[in-house]
């Protein structure tokens, strides 16, 4: 709906972007807090360095499967029934991670977290698209997604490693970071509207008609930009998600940093991603989706190579991994936000985002960390660089085939 004077309801727009952005930030925090804690957890739970890849992979696989399934479901039953329960469940699983007694229990808990976070992700992106004015869609979807990097990858390593200095055990950290999710779920209960009640319902086609309901995943897979988005997300996730999981062990076990030094360097992933996730989609509103996608993959490839050429120089490592994340997480926000939204058939926006996010998670967030973990165990942690490099280098080639969909370019 629009307000009485015919202007876009910016009050609702910003409330939704803010709350869903905080929620997605908590998705990142609950997901990635385990990485900076893992070197400390290893002795208590009798784990080896490659197990972090197994844990990241289990969560990523379940995230991917349920993003695909629930994305389509949200188009039919609405957003509230998905988003609020998902927030409650993944927050609970975060707390329960601190109660695990071994690898098997931890895998089960993290897999259940992946189910809830996979449900939250495409539905939240579509809710923002529904609230956002089309000309601001790129920057607002990016603003919502940048909380993932800020909370999970920038503040998360600092929070985790500093809390280790004041709490009795790493187990307490998981419960501390779980609490905000329950609060945000309560606020969303009072603020969030269903798509048919928002001004953007017609724009994103969130309310299905009988004709639209006949659309299926086959129709989505016939859309070239959807298929390319799936492949491109796999490429960039196999870079930034592998590095997010494996670099803490690399910095402490291979470079020889303390937990606090490691946490400060790792925060570069978060701060770079925070700026990239609203900066890259925002720039694409002006310069186009395709040019920013190509540029981001080139920048990520160069930055990954530079990072692994550096020695024990905290500032240089921070700056280089900042740039890796700026480009990698920035293009993730662009792919899963504006590119997927604008390529979706009418009535299938959540389904389109879900299949893009889901496929990227299954392979980039699930399979790639498993591969990286096996490489770390068999060939050394320093060789996980090749998983990241191959991913983003392939993305350069694939991004050349994207069709431009930015509204400013379509109007030319």
Distance between the termini: 28 Å
Quaternary structure of the protein:
single chain
Q: Unreliable runs, pLDDT <50, ≥5 residues?
A: 205-215
Q: Based on helices, strands and strand pairing, what is the structural class? A: mainly alpha
Number of strands: 0
Share of helix among residues? over 70%
Major sheet size, sense and barrel closure: none
How much is the radius of gyration in Å?
A: 20 Å
User: What characteristic shape results from the CA principal axes?
Assistant: globular
The overall pLDDT, averaged over residues, is: 83
Number of helices: 17
Q: Approximately what portion of the residues adopt beta-strand conformation?
A: under 5%
User: What is the ordering of alpha helices and beta strands?
Assistant: HHHHHHHHHHHHHHHHH
Give me some keywords for this one.
mainly alpha, 17 helices
What would you note in describing this structure?
The chain is built from 17 helices and no strands. The protein is mostly helical and 412 residues long. α11 (224-255) runs antiparallel to α14 (314-343) and α13 (289-307) packs antiparallel against α16 (385-399). It is globular and about 55 Å long.
Could you give a quick summary of the protein structure above?
The chain has helices at 10-32, 34-45, 51-77, 80-97, 103-131, 137-163, 170-191, 201-204, 210-213, 217-221, 224-255, 259-287, 289-307, 314-343, 349-379, 385-399, 407-410. Helices cover 80% and strands 0% of the residues.
């Amino acid at each position: 709906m629009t307000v009485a004077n015919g202007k876009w309801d910016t009050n609702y727009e910003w409330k939704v972007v803010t709350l869903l952005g905080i929620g997605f930030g908590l998705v990142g925090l609950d997901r990635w807090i385990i990485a900076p804690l893992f070197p400390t957890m290893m002795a208590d739970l009798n784990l080896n360095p490659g197990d972090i890849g197994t844990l990241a992979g289990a969560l990523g696989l379940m995230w991917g499967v349920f993003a695909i399934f629930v994305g389509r479901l949200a188009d039919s039953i609405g957003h509230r029934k998905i988003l609020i329960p998902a927030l409650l469940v993944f927050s609970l699983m975060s707390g329960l991670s601190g109660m695990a007694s071994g690898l098997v229990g931890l895998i089960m808990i993290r897999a259940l977290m992946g189910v809830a976070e996979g449900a939250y992700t495409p539905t939240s992106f579509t809710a923002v698209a529904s609230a956002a004015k089309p000309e601001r869609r790129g920057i607002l979807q990016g603003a919502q997604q940048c909380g993932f990097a800020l909370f999970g990858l920038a503040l998360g390593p600092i929070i985790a490693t500093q809390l280790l200095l004041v709490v009795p055990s790493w187990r307490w950290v998981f419960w501390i970071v779980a609490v905000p999710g329950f609060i945000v779920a309560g606020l969303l209960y009072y603020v969030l509207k269903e798509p048919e009640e928002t001004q953007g319902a017609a724009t994103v086609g969130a309310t299905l008609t009988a004709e639209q309901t006949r659309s299926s995943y086959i129709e989505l897979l016939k859309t070239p930009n959807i298929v390319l988005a799936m492949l491109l997300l796999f490429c960039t996730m196999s870079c930034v998600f592998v590095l997010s999981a494996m670099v803490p062990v690399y910095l402490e076990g291979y470079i020889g940093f303390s937990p606090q030094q490691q946490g400060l360097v790792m925060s570069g992933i978060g701060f770079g991603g925070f700026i990239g996730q609203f900066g890259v989609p925002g720039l694409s509103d002006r310069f186009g989706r395709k040019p920013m996608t190509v540029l981001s993959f080139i920048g990520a490839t160069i930055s990954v190579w530079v990072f692994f050429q550096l020695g024990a120089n905290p500032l240089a490592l921070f700056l280089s991994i900042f740039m890796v994340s700026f480009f990698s997480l920035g293009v993730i926000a662009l792919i899963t936000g504006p590119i997927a939204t604008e390529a979706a058939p009418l009535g299938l926006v959540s389904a389109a985002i879900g299949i893009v996010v889901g496929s990227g998670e299954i392979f980039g967030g699930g399979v790639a960390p498993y591969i990286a973990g096996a490489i770390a165990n068999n060939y050394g942690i320093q060789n996980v660089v090749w998983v990241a490099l191959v991913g983003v280098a392939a993305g350069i080639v694939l991004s050349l085939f994207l069709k431009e969909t930015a509204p400013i370019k379509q109007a030319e």
